[in-house]
Queue: 4 jobs
Job 1
Amino acid sequence: MLRLDVDGDDFPADPNRNYAIPPDNPFVGLAGRDEIWAYGLRNPFRSSFDRATGDLYIGDVGQSNREEIDYQGAAGSGGDNYGWKLREGTLQTPPGTNCAGGAPPPGNVEPIYEYSHGGGASQGNSVTGGYVYRGPETAIQGRYFFADFVNERIWSIAAATGANFTDWTTAFVPDAGTIDQIVSFGEDGFANLYIVDLGGEVFRVEGPVGFVPCPDLVLENDAILGIEIFEHCRNILLGPDLMVAAGGELRLGVGNRVVMRGGTTIAGELVVEIDESLQQTPP
């Protein structure tokens, strides 16, 4: 990773180097290129700064086993080594990958979050780095959002620490189109968060988004004609295309939340009872 001063020119005789070297770059006057800020990254795909703190987040695509989120605080002085090629995330790079894996190098900086390759809800094969959310939705303030391009999942972790991993894939339901093959995230001047997919669709995250993902119960593409009872669920997701018909009754016993997606029609009766024994603190 390079750090350049694009407002200066330390190489006026070289038409291909129209920039200056920040004097506090970590390798100025030492062995190595003066432009280098950090190293040991394999294939960074989307880096961003937290607009509130200046902290740096890097989504680094792995090779055989791990995808990772790397972090550097705003007060960092650079020169960080994130471990590649010796390390893939917190693992020794496996043999057979044309890389000589080994023990962590001196000063190795491990990722704040990593996940394994696969098709599970917390797995994937190609990370897409995102942003720390600083927009108007208080429920997700201070969470770093990222995704996996191959497995088409959207996740978040707590800023700086990497704690409180949360899967938002089923909670982010667009008004139109489908979110798939996520290639980038973006922000606007109001700190709204945008999701961009390979098909050219751009989605803006809007509230309410207080629903805790991974619902215990999903009711969709169905018609409730009589009385149906569902109890002992922490979170319930209704729709799309769910109808409680006239004369029908849907009774729900829930600990945290019921969220209705587009296409849900309540012509009959919807009864929601709170079960305090199932309540949990949202992430």
Note: The chain has a mean pLDDT of 89.
Job 2
Amino acid sequence: MFVQISSKKICRFNFSFSIIIINEHLLAYYMPKGLKETSSLIGIGFSVIETAANTFIQDRVDLQLNPLDNEVFIVYAVDLDPTAPDVQAGTNTATSCSLTTTSRTAVANLGDSACLANAVLNIRMDAGSIEGVPFTRGSNESPATQLDYLGIISTNDFFVQLQGTGNANVKAVSGKMYGVRARADASVYAALVQSEVLTQ
């Protein structure tokens, strides 16, 4: 559960993003059953750049969890900041990205059980038009309802996917995942690992 202390709107290429500040003092009260917090709030940054325009790329980010201690990572928020798509006359363009608990071969959406967050920036144009209409679509940085957390990562890493569409230039995404380390009971840890492996 989160309290939004303050928010600030940032405009870049006609797209609007929201920055959420998390009150870490509240986190300990909402630890999932069977887990014991072993760290304070951690922010893990990442950045991914296409190797060529409109080419899918995935990056693996190591969490350095200790499986011998049944260590997991509880995700409280994810912030994705993709670069804006190009303005191409008469062409629809997009920058799409996602963050998942297991490896993927394409950008994931929220219908994928392994997907914790995704974001898509679009510029739509009619044929022959030189003026496009921008659209922004993405999952919230923090849970939209009274959920206590976004997800639990029980394996040693997570993955960030990126792909542009219709662009002349390579695109990138940077972001940060917020959460805490925790130690799970043996039975809970086994169930979490099995559930995550089955999403591959």
Note: The CA atoms of residues 38 and 138 lie 31 Å apart.
Job 3
Amino acid sequence: MEIGDSLIHSRSVPAGQSGELIQFSRHTVHWDWMSFSVRRLAQGESWECHHAGEEAACVLLSGTCTLEWNNQHKEIGKRKTVFDGLPYALYLAPADRARFTAISPCEIAECHVPSQSQLPSRLVTPADVAVSLRGGGNVSRQIVDIMPPAFPADRLIAIEVYTPGGNWSSYPPHKHDVHNPPAEVDLDEIYYYRMSRPGAFAHQRLYKTDDSRDSMVIARDGDVVLVRDGYHPVVAGPGYDIYYLNFLAGSARALFVTEDPNHVWIRSACSGVCCESGVPANCVCGYRNWGVTGTTAATRVPDLAHAIGGTGFTLWNSGFLTRC
């Protein structure tokens, strides 16, 4: 595993073999909050999660397993890959333990942060997550809120994002590196990337408006990008649909951000719903009104497919945005 200032590559673990694909502590990467790992379990293999004095979020990326926590026992997992369904996840309180035992080969992403919370551990099922479409035109993407700010946790926020090939996300560019609520809060952020096919890639620009930072990261399957500060828009390579799992933690459990003033004009060009908060209506750049706004429950995903069917996009069978 190779660790850089902003980009971390996964270990090369042959297909069918188990092992830790990626792992780093907050001390290793020199920031205050999040430690992160992804591991693959072979059929019948178990893994126990427990971090004294820290809350954790475990997201089942793929496969099926049994989960045991707090005298509860449940079989979880429906998707073969992250592109094949909605997630199961577990919020694990600092004092609790959880054991995952693979029924089929599975992969689990886990993030943990310091916490003295007394909130209870809680299982999140596909029926619990919220699915929404954000943006329009070539900034269309799908958001899956696993543990949003309203979720009962102390520090962690967890979100999945699906971006069709050639599209932008985390756009208009925004930042969250200053604690100035309610305008902005200081959040570190993890982007864990998975790709729909071999050779896929995304470009992520990490920059500040004072030019003290301006770099372009090339992310491939299994890579992690660390967002420490500044703006961080993403574009998927044409023809390559991408997924990333975001974990955020910092000075407050809220998604208050500041947008790059050089690109705020994109919002004012829309008459109706602005690009980042929903689906834009009648924008000058050729967007059309899809008739869908705000957060949509996972049970209403077919409505989204119908609503955007005439715009050049459809939804994956499992409810994810992609090109027709």
Note: Confidence is low (pLDDT under 50) at residues 270-324.
Job 4
Amino acid sequence: MATAGKPGELIWNGVNIDSLDVSAAGNVDVTVHSGTSGQWSVVARGRHEFLNSLHCIEDGNVLKLISQPYKSVRGFFGGSKNTIDICTGFTQGVELDAKVSGSGDFTCEPSFQSSRVSVSGSGDIELTDAGNLTCTVSGSGDIAFVSANNANISISGSGDIEAGQLGESASSRSTVPVTQTSVP
């Protein structure tokens, strides 16, 4: 259950997760931080409509965070940016499933053994070590990763994939050419 922080803020806390399932819709920036304490936390900040659209569920060892589409009564201009900060309580996770639809961004610091990420719209996803990676871009969004063991990549639209280092035994299956670059 969420606790109210400052006005325009919700906070969730728990212990012992090793996987994330995040679905972010609309104009929201999600940042995932590493940790070593075994305790996780989620702090969401933003407009009332956005905060009411959030659901945070601890399902066994998986933290599920869902931002459902919402209608802003203030329109597109002015006001504060919607943000979600997640501290995982680990530096190496098992599974990451991240879906960004809309104009938000997703930045992830901890590494994962397996990652499934998708962008639909103009949002961007940045990963460090993605492990066995499946990524899909539809729209103008971009996905960048520092390293992956394997990469299965699909792009439909004008989006880009910036691939860092692939493992020695990695094979990249792609429906489009992928640029392999050095990602900071």
Note: DSSP finds one helix and 18 strands in the chain.
